[in-house]
Amino acid sequence: MCGIVGWFDLKGHRPPDRALLRAMSDAIAHRGPDGDGHHFEPGLGFGHRRLAVIDLVTGAQPMSSPDKTVCLIFNGEIFNFQELRRDLEQRGHVFVTHSDTEVVLQAYKEWGEDCVSRLTGQFAFAVWDQRRETLFLARDRLGEKPLYYSILADQTLVFASELKALRVHPDLDRDIDPCAIDRGSRANGLTPPRSSRSSGVKVKSTKVGTGKRVIRSKRSPVLVNVMNESRRYVPVICPPIPTAGSTQSLLKGTFSSRSRKT
């Protein structure tokens, strides 16, 4: 288990509050006792808490591409990362670690947002693509690895692996949603339009709110774009949930990938 936190300026390139982002990361220190890291630049801040499982020496995060144009923070485990690595090496990608984190990074560079359709595993991650001025957030199909986010009144976006990290931010709406509490207590879970018990916080879902646009297609049934006057935007995407006919083959592939690792 690892933890990720982030801050993104939807309006422009205001400097991140480094102390605040570190405090958000510290709030989920229990998710990553083996190390922490940060990435700051105008308009963006990343934080990561690491539990070292694969590539104990060189798998530190945030992880950037050699040309520094793409930066990644990742929580989870990619079961088919060895197969993906071989595919990417055949396409000319050069790896400097043995981690599944770098496979996700190089997969994004090769396939862009469609990389999520090739990942088998449990994951939540954020990619900053400097070339496109794009922050890309992704979560696994069933939400095994959590991802919470909130758009604040000052037109900044914060996200994290746990609510307690978001609550560190002084501008977060802390109002409780009583309807969500009632629904969650009776149904043992929440569905859109309510995805969190806090009014100002959303779980990665099909939730549509002010300033967001949902696009549906066969490739990515849930794609949320947060638009503003500049060219910067924030897509939030999860891979398609498999149909009944493809579930069996997906499970077989997952079990096969896991068994080869053990």
Walk me through the topology:
Blueprint: E1 3-9, H1 18-26, E2 35-41, E3 44-50, E4 63-64, E5 70-78, H2 81-90, H3 100-111, E6 121-129, E7 134-139, E8 148-151, E9 156-160, H4 163-166, H5 178-187, E10 202-203, E11 212-215, E12 222-226, E13 234-238, H6 244-261
Parallel strand pairs: 7-13
Antiparallel strand pairs: 1-3, 1-9, 2-3, 4-5, 5-6, 6-7, 8-9, 8-10, 11-12, 12-13
Helix pairs in contact: 2-3
Describe the biggest sheet?
7 strands, mixed
Number of helices: 6
CATH architecture: 4-Layer Sandwich
Backbone CA Rg:
18 Å
Q: Tell me how many strands there are.
A: 13
Q: Secondary-structure element order, as H and E?
A: EHEEEEHHEEEEHHEEEEH
Q: Record the strand order, biggest sheet.
A: 4-5-6-7-13-12-11
> Mean pLDDT score, rounded?
77
Shape: globular
Helix amount: 10-25%
CATH superfamily: Aminohydrolase, N-terminal nucleophile (Ntn) domain
End-to-end separation in angstroms reads 18 Å
Supply the number of structural domains. 1
Helix/strand class: alpha+beta
Percent range for β-strand residues:
25-35%
